[in-house]
Write a structure and sequence with these properties.
Largest sheet: 7 strands, parallel
Number of helices: 11
Shape: globular
Strand content: 15-25%
Number of strands: 15
Order of helices and strands: EHEEEHEHEEHEEEHEEHEHEEHHHH
Strand order of the largest sheet: 3-2-1-4-5-6-11
Radius of gyration: 20 Å
Length: 327
């Protein structure tokens, strides 16, 4: 297989690129040149937001293109139109954020969606991703695979959620653990996403698929237990009632990454139906493996994970955490 990876130097794109290389595929990475792609790839340079930015893609044929773009849908539109007669299939890594909020637990791919347009400039994350989906569909039709990812964790994470918990438990001492322990989580290890995406595209699957672990594949307890154990066992998890946390004004998801208390938002973020993807081969590794491998990667960087410039670094201030714990 010949893969054209649009991006491919960070997080999701890098994981997909490495998975393709492991399969012996021929991989071309199209990127801006800010980060080195994995060894073994061919590189083409361009900026999709600049005039003439796709010139390097004017020639060439590939079996598959994978696109993780999350900005203005026009970038997906222009690349898909340029490539549609020279590429077999187009896999667009979208997001479960394209579903209209609120959405009940158990929602499948037929749920109501936000508005979007392939011709739009950047509006907001959900609308941008939906516009990207429509751009891929407009150009490739049933040759377009829409991978609607939920929360993505694993090595190379540049959003900071799991790295924050790992570094926090590594520091040891009392840790504010947002309860309840049995709160179900739904996420996808980036490598499981990569493997499934390439498998599904190679098998000729098209259309939309929710891409996350089954709801409850892990819990807040199993995740933080794995973090504490992996980082040396010096952390004392102090499970705290979610009502007390929210009454103190602590923000779920941002100040306490990954955690969303039970309710409407949790149903939306952690209750998606993934049976369609499971039926065509999705498998999810244990949370302990995701945590251990992310910690090993983080240590290789000296404990400091890369951080996307368009996303605020997550995590609660140490003094505020201590005050909430009565320390």
């Amino acid at each position: 297989m010949k893969l054209l990876m649009l991006g491919g130097t960070e997080f999701v794109g890098r994981a997909i690129t490495e998975e393709a290389l492991d399969r012996g595929w021929e991989v071309t990475v199209f990127h801006r040149g800010h980060h080195a792609p994995p060894p073994g790839t061919s590189a083409l340079h361009g900026d999709r937001t600049a005039p003439g930015g796709l010139d390097a893609l004017a020639e060439g044929e590939w079996d598959l293109v994978v696109d993780t773009w999350g900005g203005a849908p026009t970038a997906v539109r222009d690349s898909a139109r340029l490539l549609r007669d020279r590429v077999g299939r187009y896999a667009y890594v979208s997001s479960r954020s394209v579903y209209a909020y609120p959405a009940p637990a158990g929602l499948d791919e037929q749920g109501p969606l936000v508005e979007g347009s392939p011709d739009a400039e950047s509006i907001a994350y959900a609308e941008d991703k939906r516009g990207g989906e429509l751009a891929a569909l407009d150009a490739f039709g049933d040759r377009a695979l829409l991978v609607r990812a939920g929360l993505i964790l694993g090595p190379y994470e540049n959003v900071g959620r799991l790295p924050w918990w790992l570094n926090r438990t590594a520091r040891g001492g009392p840790v504010l653990a947002p309860g309840p322990r049995e709160l179900p989580l739904q996420y996808i290890d980036v490598r499981d996403l990569a493997r499934w995406t390439l498998d599904a595209a190679a098998a000729g699957h098209g259309g939309a698929y929710n891409m996350a672990s089954p709801a409850g594949h892990a819990t807040m307890g199993s995740l933080l237990d794995a973090c504490a154990g992996t980082t040396g066992g010096r952390a004392e998890l102090r499970w705290t009632d979610p009502d007390l946390i929210q009454q103190a004004g602590v923000q779920p998801w941002t100040e306490l990454p990954i955690w969303i208390p039970a309710g409407e938002a949790h149903d939306y973020m952690a209750g998606g139906d993934v049976s369609k993807a499971l039926a065509v081969g999705l498998t999810c590794r244990p949370v302990e493996e995701t945590v251990a491998d992310t910690w090993a990667w983080l240590q290789s960087l000296g404990g400091v994970a890369p951080q996307r410039s368009d996303r605020p670094a997550p995590g609660i201030d140490a003094e505020r955490e201590a005050a909430l714990l009565g320390l």
